[in-house]
Amino acid sequence: MFFAGLQDSGNLKYVRGDMFEDVPVADAVLLKSILHDWNDDECSRILKRCKEAISNQHKRGTIKKVIIVDMVVMDSEKVNEENSKTFETQLFFHMLMMVGLTGRERGEEEWAKLFCAAGFSDYKIIPISGLRFLIEVYP
User: If you classify domain 28-138 with CATH, what class do you get?
Assistant: First the structure.
């Protein structure tokens, strides 16, 4: 396993497990390039486990959230000459996910449906680097 030799720090703990079965209680859960590997039903199961993990944390004064680093495919109606190559690259990744795995790349509307289906109340999407976005999801 990739994380087997990593050391915990004061505020970060590495835990081995099955995210479909259980996610340990935490203030925040980080999913980097995870959800695009899975179909909507599987993503919903993972997100529900994450919501349970952060909802079971009873520390006062902490903002509980799921942090997702993944792609957000732009709306085809917003494609122009300036961003057409980015959109084309996003579509290539989308096809790669559909051919190699059960997942896919998602647009904002598709992400919102997943968050709602998993019982979350709000989210925020922030572009961070190239094709990657930071998505904060709140219970």
Answer: alpha beta
